[in-house]
Amino acid sequence: MALRRMVLEIGMGTDIRGGDPTKAAIRALRDALWHNALTVAGALGKPADAMHVDVTIGVPMPERVDKQAVLAELPHGGGTITVVEGGLSLPNESGTDVTLIANAAAVVRLDVP
């Protein structure tokens, strides 16, 4: 059998104050995941933990993202993460702080024929 793409979920997250790319990335992944209740695994006779999720995050300062903290947000199964330069960085008026916006794509895969 092979891992086959079942669902693509997309989300957006921010860190309004503090410029923390991990916080923005976690919020983006939550946004992607928490608008759905996936029942596809059960419909195919698979446990929810059989899901594999490929997460891609686009955020400023991708090298500062704690990848394991982001993956810890997955409610079922396991996953992989790729973090790339993306999103937006918006400085405040005085230039002393920044708002970060991250985008997330979560591709849910199941091992099916």
TrEMBL record:
Pfam families reported in the protein's UniProt record: Lin0512_fam (PF09585)
Gene3D superfamilies: Tubulin/FtsZ, C-terminal domain
Highest rank taxon of the organism: Bacteria
GO molecular function: GTP binding
Keywords from the named record: GTP-binding, Nucleotide-binding
Alphabetical list of InterPro entries matching this protein: CHP02058, Tubulin/FtsZ-like_C
Keyword GTP-binding: yes
Signal peptide (from-to): none
NCBIfam families (alphabetical): lin0512_fam
Name the record gives this protein: Uncharacterized protein
Lineage of the organism: Bacteria, Pseudomonadati, Pseudomonadota, Alphaproteobacteria, Hyphomicrobiales
